[in-house]
Amino acid sequence: MTRLPDFRLETYFSRWEFTARHHLTASDAQTMAMSELLALADAEDREAWDILALGYTETFGDPGLREAIAGTYELAGPEDVICFGGAQEGLNLAMRVLLGPGDHAVVVTPNYQSAETLPLSLCEVTGVALDPARDWALDLDELTAALRPETRVVSVNFPNNPTGKVIDTADFVRLAELCDERGIHLFSDEVYRGLERDPGRALPRAADLSARALSLDVTSKSLGLPGLRIGWIVCRDRELRGRLERAKHYTTICNAAPSEVLARIAVKARERILARNRALIAENLPLFEAFFARYADLFEWRAPDGGCVAYPRYLGADGVEAFCAGLVEEAGVLLLPASVFRSELTPTPADRFRIGVGRRDPAPALESFGSWLEGRRR
């Protein structure tokens, strides 16, 4: 196993996330106060919160939370759920359980950095890039050609971070079938599911399509509750779930009891929270459309299919890295440049930046952004 590289996104955020005046690249939907979340609790969960004892919890996760999570899947039951301290822990341990020397993985790019650096630290990895020239399309023929006899994992993320792409359901179903035919585990990062602009385009859960597949989800993104630090993997392979539990014994062991009760409330109220967040994104998108239309000579904009991030193209002669650096240093507006999403596996566009569209009232940030652009033109 090789040494993991610096996590570029987190390094960039360490410098700017809590010092920039406008966090315009947030990857999570608008959060809520504790009082708002508790107001969504049913009587049973409110009592559970009020009398909660701060002892250890079950490694697999709170039974009530697992039952609530299972209710969001068609075929999975509570026994198919294992909870983690955020999605990152689940991703990390799944790769370590599934991959080793002599194995091979296929990873779709661009992506969240650890989706490729963790497999790369364990085995050989082939990247398959979404095509920006074809609206970030996934070429299933190219992915099929990348498979080998020793391929153990295919890792995907839809709605995609950072592009907001959602592929067609038929392609996703075919991908799951392809993995099953080859005895491969499909690892599906589904942390933005529920924020599709057209709810009819929501993809099936991978864990519902295949007993070998792993569906990763979390309270952080679509539900806008990253402070809970609760994620989960759903998989109908009992032996694999047992291996994930034993791996968790070496990391968090169990989750924080208050977070699990709060996560249970949030998952039960999921449809109300998602409806609120979809409405907020729908309200925000015309502001972003109008902003980028005013500066069409500098940007190519496309609204995301799903999730709450987009990946516009910067056309300025100074390049996207200098552009993002100047914007945050001089105007206090934080964006993430393409270098943060650079892949070691495939060529990736060097002229893009990630922008968040899921937070309440982006107008002040866009006003500062626009004033800075106007100042550069004078």
UniProtKB/TrEMBL annotation:
GO molecular function: transaminase activity
UniProt keyword Transmembrane present: no
Keywords annotated in UniProt: Aminotransferase, Transferase
Coiled coil: none
InterPro entries assigned: Aminotransferase_I/II_large, PyrdxlP-dep_Trfase, PyrdxlP-dep_Trfase_major, PyrdxlP-dep_Trfase_small
Highest rank taxon of the organism: Bacteria
Keyword Lipid biosynthesis: no
Residue stretches making up the Aminotransferase class I/classII large domain: 54-357
Pfam families noted in UniProt: Aminotran_1_2 (PF00155)
Protein's UniProt name: Pyridoxal phosphate-dependent aminotransferase
Source organism: Kitasatospora putterlickiae
